[in-house]
Amino acid sequence: MAETDQTPRLAGPLNRETLDNLRSVLTLCWKSFEFYRLRFEESGVSLLDINADDPITTLQKLALIEPDDLGHLSREVATTAEGIVDVETSSGTTGQRKVRYMTYEDDQREHEFLAELWAVAGVGPEDRVACLDTDPVN
């Protein structure tokens, strides 16, 4: 089987504001999450590199997050308990159970993303969608 290049491709050049925002997110990850800080260090990326280099180049140096990594990452929360408005869990049927702690801002962004996703699928504001569990836990 031939290997394919799985390097993400950008649709075009990113503007300065987008690059600065990406750099800010990378810096926040470094400072707030031990998981990410270790990933950066394992990839040879320092905080100085994050602030000095092109953030796209920095991302390309990092290893992908694997499903088993999500369990470790979900134990690190970038907010206080008072900031959490929802906790989502997976069943763990494909491996380690995953937990996701949601802030109000996370929840809002997810709603906006899902609205865009539904719109792309042709579902509009007047449509109704039913989500059915076809394999409920007994």
Task: Give a brief outline of the structure.
With 138 residues, this protein is mostly helical. The protein is built from six helices and two strands, in the order αααααββα. The chain has two domains: 51 residues, no CATH class; 59 residues, no CATH class.
Proportion of strand residues: 5-15%
Oligomer: single chain
Poorly predicted residue ranges = none
Shape type: globular
**Helices and strands, in N-to-C order?**
HHHHHEEH
Alpha plus pi helix count: 6
Instruction: Specify Rg, calculated over alpha carbons.
Output: 18 Å
Mean pLDDT: 81
The tally of structural domains comes to 2
Number of strands: 2
Largest sheet: 2 strands, antiparallel
Briefly note the structural class of the backbone.
mainly alpha
Question: Distance between termini?
Answer: 41 Å
Q: Name the strands of the widest sheet in spatial order.
A: 1-2
Helix content: 40-55%
